Fold these 2 entries.
Entry 1:
Amino acid sequence: MDRRDFIKTAGGAFLLASSGAYAFRVLTAPSAGWMDVDFTPSGRKWGMVIDMNKCREDCTACLQACREENNVAFVNDDRYDIHWIRKARLQYKEESENPGKSVILLCNHCDNPPCAQVCPVQATYKRHDGIVIVDHHRCIGCRYCMIACPYNARYFNMKESEEWPNKDFPKRSHGVAEACNLCAHRLDAGKMPACVEACARQGCGALYVGDLNDHSSEVSRLIAKSAVKRIRPDLGTEPKVYYIGL
Amino acid sequence: MKGKPLLSPADPGQARLIVIIAVLIFVPLGFSVVSQVSRNRAESPNDFLEKPDPKYEECVRETSYMRFHHWELLRGIREEVVRYGKRSDVGLTKCSECHTSRERFCDKCHNAASLTPDCFDCHYFPK
């Protein structure tokens, strides 16, 4: 065997050995097994009913509870403040003595969400139970959803929240879009959203959250028996927040 | 032109077999020596890994998996929780029950490997 043959043989064997070792490592590497999600949809569709007749104009308990539950940035500066739920005063088109109604506004969790349609990275999407939610890990902060949302329910995180009242729930970093997630983490755990609980604690009980698919639930009953209105149903977004006495 | 013969048994096929077997034995041996040496380097995690507070009998996966693949596990759980609403017991909050300090259990390795995960920007973990 001459030098040339030796180098050829040894080189071939080396390639064989190293590729074999590599294949062994790859094939026997432990896998997290996250690609196969064992998941069955619950068949629920969460919706909200707001009884404006019960809501007090001067009460902001739901706003405060939301900020504390979800670590929403609030520094009393219009440039940075984020409102997952907010109160606004309706104005009449004509001059009027009537000061107009104060209404609670939040993400309507549309059945046909324009924000999810425009999201280029599928960070915003509709969950199986109808909650429109932002995956902040994916969000690139392009703000298309803020333009698409006809309800102005979306906010851009210009400045991180400095306070961290609820350590069990993450806050959001600078550069992502945010909106109400109907306290999905609480609903998954079998609890009611923070705003609903706070409203009940105040003795108003103006907010109801429940399953729209379940015809015996409180929200379905209220929608069936009262004159409910939704905001801009003509847009075809099918909002799931219903107002009584708007 | 033929060079000077390095091995000169009677059968050239036998010579080839000897070389192949020698390589198959010595190359993995060399790899294991190199990896052993690099494992014992000064900046190896083995030098500064600490035992966590024993709140539970064992971790959710074996130590060898957790040491190098915990991020895959966490990413998988994240995907299930965020996209499917399938809540899990395991998560950063659960980790922090035994691994009580971010500086002692997270940052040391991440710094040694010059990794900057942004988990802690939004998720709470005790200092």
Entry 2:
Amino acid sequence: MSYVAEGYNSFETKKSPSGIVRYLPDPKSVISLIQSGKLKEHILLVQGGTTTFLAPALSMGSIGVITMSGAPESHLGILSREFQMPCVMTAYLTGSEARYVTGGNNDAHFAAIIKALDGKKVKLHCEDRETGRVSLLG
Amino acid sequence: MTGLSEQEFLVLNGVHLKKMATAKELASAVGLEVPVVEAVLNAAAGNDLLMVAEGKHLLLQDGTNAVQEYYRTVYGPMRSNDRVLEWYDRFETINEQFIKQVSEWQSTDGDERVQSRMIKTVERLTKNLQELTPLLPRYEIYVARFNASVTRVDQGDKDFVCKPTIDSVHNIWFEFHEDILSVIGRPRDT
């Protein structure tokens, strides 16, 4: 199987959720998704590992998350393990050399990931101890 | 002038920090009676400051704006107070330790030694918090909440370490961190 993206795995799990990727840039987008009643149809893509505004989506039963920065040792990592919700963190595109740089300007890196994943149907693979992976479906 | 009264701020800030909560959870977290909290929440819902989903309250953008405006207006002087800013710098170090310890606690299935180190970190924070309470009296409630949850952990109820749906130590820490960042006007990683 080929993977479009990979990153740190928040925790090992045989759960392998699939859904349409939805990029959530701000609290408003999280509330809008919850109000739509379609939260569980989506894999959530967010920028940071301490994305506090994501908390309502986690409480409402989101099925999986991809972050573009942040480590498993973060608030979001801790919550994903407690909710047993697969979470691929600091994801990067496997077909690109670009990687997240702490303290650097990551705008182009983030934009490329959003362009490659937002709106696509994907599956998360989190059975490996260290690495979480994302494959495209359909 | 901010648009919120102190009581309205306490309740809506509780929603802001918890992200999603019932009136009862909020009353317990902010130290007000449930009917008082319900009255504020109902009025806020009527003014489109918040929404209700499955009995839990979430701030809408106007509600978040009102809470942030209160922080700016009332806590503005704290943002240039060296004592507060130095306190926060020390907190950052403790915060990193705490997050690592909770993660390690999870990965070791609640190892007692890791738990003991984590509880010591929480006790360090509650001790340090007493330096801030003369300036921020409402922070007393964090000390009380931490103490109550640590007591439950000490009694063997491990859910009170970091279960997201109760007043666990990690939840309280998460809320406190968001609160102090708002007081000093620093953004959090998005």
